[in-house]
Amino acid sequence: MKITFLGANQQVTGSRYCLEAGGSKIMIDCGLVQEREFVSRNWDPCPVPPNEVDALLLTHIHIDHCGLIPKLVHDGFKGPIHATHPSVALVKIMLLDSARIQKEDVDYKKKRHRKEKRKGKHPEVPLYTERDAEEALTLFRGLDYAQTIKINDAFSVTFHEAGHILGSAMLEIEARENGQTRQILFSGDIGQWDKPIIRDPSLFEQADYVIMESTYGDKDHIDAGEIEEQLFKIITDTFSRGGKVLIPTFAVERAQELMYYIGRLVHNDRIPDVPVYLDSPMAVDVTDIFRKSRRYYDEKTWDLINSDEPPLRFHGLRMVRQAKDSKNIKNLKGPCIIMATSGMCTAGRIKHHLKNNIGSSNCTVLFVGYQGRSTLGRVIQSGKPEVRIHGQKYHVKAKVEQIHGFSGHADRSGLLRWLGNLKPNPRHVFLTHGEKEASFDLAETLKRDSGLSVSVPEYLETADLD
């Protein structure tokens, strides 16, 4: 019985694990790597032959957890893919959009490289096509929270609410081999407590082995006051300069949470009547699924639904699907709010809006989510006076702001709360999905304060679960 770590090890993207027991192999997540120094791993053959994997379990549909699934299927995986019902609905949007972005990026790079008379580092072909994504979608099987399914004689799994995004799950896996049984708990991405729209993370009392994320393992979220008040201050300050607020946005959860808070400001007449653009076909489609997934909402959101303040609808909101409508936004004079993907500025329409506005001191670039190392978002966030977008350099004159309370991840205190609920201590805890400093800092804290057996695996490391 063993686990091999195939991604998100001492980094925060590319989540992927292989669990082996009783002659069977299952994979947990299969995500795209987004940090520049590791991105070549997306092109490498899967370290575990895809045709040897019996099933894939998906914790949630962020692209760093699901974005390599079409490639896995193209390369030979034919087993079932198990996920919650909301995840199955959402992953169709994510994977088809990702395939389109793959093609668009390749087309743009070919054009740029021809102009510059050079070759790129990676093959100038998409990682996968829309056809690959469509084939992968036929393998998905939806299930409910707290529903236990038997994968085969070696594995059973139960999905539990993770509180991270709609449909996100923690996996409670029972592994069987040679008469032994082990309870293996995958945290997925652990959400924060008391967040709007979705329910709180699940807590557990027992596990033999835990694979836990550590994105914020070395820090607590900065308490700068209520999110609504922070947003109000930044928006009104930017509007007073006559500028635009640009918000790099994750299409799932973050876009809808922003709509929730901006909607409250609009409903309460706290900000001027200006256009608010959700400029992402994917985010628009995701919002439609959110509106149809009410049974997964928390009580506070239900209270708003039953009042005269619908949480995902408000005056001035404009849902932008077409590219021509997105391009027309740059012609708008005066203040507005632009929410556009991708959340780390690695691709998508936000890069075009940044090109058009980052050189204006009237505008604000507002980050509301984690920015991975070496991503364009991290470079802008770091205060660099000049950034490179689509191969060209731009001076950063726009004001750069951050609201930490939007994070979909539990902070250090939240991670300790989640793990501390396990009694007795698990046999071992593996910390993943965190930059090296964050993971090792949390590991030392857990060893010192809780006496836990903890390690931070390296990429391709294998551990026995005996």
List keywords for this structure.
30% helix, alpha/beta, 466 residues, seven-stranded mixed beta sheet, 2 domains, single chain, Metallo-beta-lactamase, Chain A, 22 strands, 13 helices, Rossmann fold
Structure description:
The protein starts with a strand and ends with a strand. The strands form 4 sheets. A 7-stranded mixed beta sheet has the order 6-5-4-3-2-1-22. The chain is of the alpha/beta class and 466 residues long. It contains 13 helices and 22 strands.
Under the CATH scheme, which architecture of the largest domain would be assigned?
4-Layer Sandwich
Q: Please tell me how large the radius of gyration is.
A: 22 Å
| Uncertain runs | none
Number of strands: 22
Describe the secondary-structure layout.
Elements: E1 2-7, E2 16-21, E3 24-30, E4 55-57, H1 63-66, H2 69-74, E5 81-84, H3 85-116, H4 130-137, E6 140-143, E7 148-150, E8 155-161, E9 169-177, E10 180-186, E11 209-213, H5 227-240, E12 244-248, H6 254-267, E13 276-279, H7 281-292, H8 299-305, E14 317-320, H9 323-328, E15 336-340, H10 350-357, E16 364-367, H11 376-381, E17 386-389, E18 392-395, E19 399-402, H12 412-420, E20 428-432, H13 436-450, E21 454-455, E22 462-464
Parallel strand pairs: 3-4, 4-5, 5-6, 10-11, 11-20, 12-15, 12-16, 13-14, 13-15, 16-19, 20-21
Antiparallel strand pairs: 1-2, 1-22, 2-3, 7-8, 8-9, 9-10, 17-18
Helix pairs in contact: 3-4, 3-7, 5-6
